[in-house]
Amino acid sequence: MTGPISEEDRERTMGRLKVGSVLLVGLSAGLITSQGDASPRVVVAAVVAGLALGGLLVWYLFPSLEGLAPASDRDYRR
Fold it and tell me: Residues 23-51: what's their mean pLDDT?
């Protein structure tokens, strides 16, 4: 049987999830724009705007680690 997940692992995983979410939103904005035969300047602007929007969404939607897992400091029942 394994023990609870360490705080470092939780923080690392949450950080990767946040970065992945921001990249997903930003790159999908660029891909959608490129499907409309837009100029490269417009595609880059869409990616930058998508990354900014993704950052705002991550800030708003993902709680802090303490808010997500308040029971992380307690021992779990076995």
Answer: 94
